[in-house]
Design a protein that fits this description.
Layout: E1 41-42, E2 61-67, E3 81-86, E4 89-93, H1 99-108, E5 121-123, H2 129-132, H3 135-144, E6 151-155, H4 159-169, H5 171-179, E7 191-195, E8 199-203, E9 208-216, E10 219-227, E11 232-235, H6 243-249, E12 254-260, H7 262-265, H8 270-279, H9 283-293, E13 297-304, H10 310-318, E14 325-327
Parallel strand pairs: 1-7, 4-5, 5-6, 6-7, 11-12, 12-13, 13-14
Antiparallel strand pairs: 2-3, 3-4, 8-9, 9-10, 10-11
């Protein structure tokens, strides 16, 4: 248009009431030191990104569509989010509403890497609310479920500011969990946040992640290319037609791309036509891009139907693209 649960060594006492003497406890029980909620840790980007030599040459990747929706509250679609799971390690891209519950549902379906306490890495395409209202959920719910490492998040400028304010907004919750009776660990709610630039932004033994700029109105926005041991996956994020996507997706195994019905958009007001054409990729344009890039599979997400049917949307894409294409649904596993 775009880190293992541990039980504390001591029991925790209830918070002290104001102007009252503290409750006496047995000598062998220590009262935990009160901790202030931490601000997000801003890690420094790498100065000279290089091609990873760490990636395992064997492994199996899964793509799980956690949410294929858009700002409209469709009860059958959660907000934009997907997971790439490699050797049971999940990497989340975007965190729209419902992200952790969809991950838990996928774990029940057999993608065990998506158990909530295992959600430790996330990548954000841009700051629009439909892609970020699940961010507090991603920070706090896995912590409550046992995650005892800081969540590592990568994304555009403004992400650190958003992260600091979310942690500040939940300061009372953090204080109660750390200093009340709950046996909460002290690290799982913290966030290591890195604002990225185009290029290699993350690598480990499972994946190599490259970010590339896309066009989403005036927003700073990114798409991502995941190089896995068994295949290459490109995610457009929200974007109008952008040549950087075509370049990144050239010959990839899977291209996951947002889409807007051009036929449906013609029935909208001129103001909405101008908006969507500046922020999103029309279906026939996506077909032309895919014809150039030649992905092994094209997957439609964030489908803006504009009043037409899903079958109509697919016909629009196929009018300019003859390769394999599917319209993604929540909890599709590819």
């Amino acid at each position: 248009m775009p880190a293992k649960p541990s039980s504390p060594s001591t029991s925790r006492s209830r918070p002290k009431a104001k102007k009252k003497a503290p409750t006496k406890v047995k000598a062998k029980i220590k009262t935990p030191r009160k901790r202030k909620p931490a601000k997000s840790k801003k890690s420094k980007p790498k100065t000279k990104p290089r091609q990873s030599e760490k990636i395992k040459r064997t492994g199996y990747s899964q793509i799980v569509l956690l949410g294929t929706g858009n700002p409209g509250p469709d009860p059958d679609k959660c907000g934009p989010s997907l997971a790439i799971v490699v050797n049971d390690v999940p990497y989340i891209v975007d965190f729209g509403p419902g992200v952790v519950r969809r991950a838990a549902a996928a774990a029940k379906l057999g993608v065990h890497g998506l158990s909530p306490s295992n959600l430790k890495h996330a990548f954000l395409t841009h700051l629009h609310s439909d892609h970020t209202t699940g961010y507090p959920d991603l920070i706090f719910t896995p912590w409550v479920c046992g995650r005892d490492e800081a969540l590592k998040v990568f994304g555009p400028k403004g992400l650190s500011h958003m992260t600091d304010h979310i942690l500040a907004a939940y300061e009372a919750d953090i204080d109660q969990r750390l200093n009340g009776l709950e046996p909460a660990n002290t690290d799982g709610y913290q966030v290591e946040c890195q604002e990225i630039k185009p290029g290699l932004c993350y690598e480990d033994e499972n994946v190599e992640v490259h970010a590339f700029a896309v066009s989403h109105g005036s927003w700073p926005a990114y798409g991502y290319k995941f190089i896995c041991p068994d295949r290459t996956i490109v995610i457009s994020g929200d974007t109008c037609l952008n040549n950087n996507v075509a370049k990144a997706a050239k010959g990839c195994d899977v291209l996951i791309h947002e889409v807007c019905s051009g036929m449906g958009l013609m029935m909208r007001s001129p103001e909405w036509q101008k908006y969507h054409s500046s922020y999103h990729t029309l279906a026939y344009e996506l077909g032309e891009l895919a014809t150039e890039a030649k992905p092994g599979l094209l997957v439609l997400v964030h489908q803006l139907l504009q009043g037409v049917s899903e079958a109509d949307l697919l016909r629009e894409v196929r009018s300019t693209y003859s390769g394999p294409v599917i319209s993604g649904k929540d909890l599709d596993i590819l």
